[in-house]
Amino acid sequence: MDIQLREEKEISIIDVEGKITMSDGCEKFREAVDSLLAHDKKKILVNLSKMEYIDSTGVGEMVSSLKTVENLGGQFKLVSLNNQAYSTFQLALLLPKFDVSKDELEALGKFK
Question: What is the pTM of this model?
Answer without folding.
Answer: 0.94
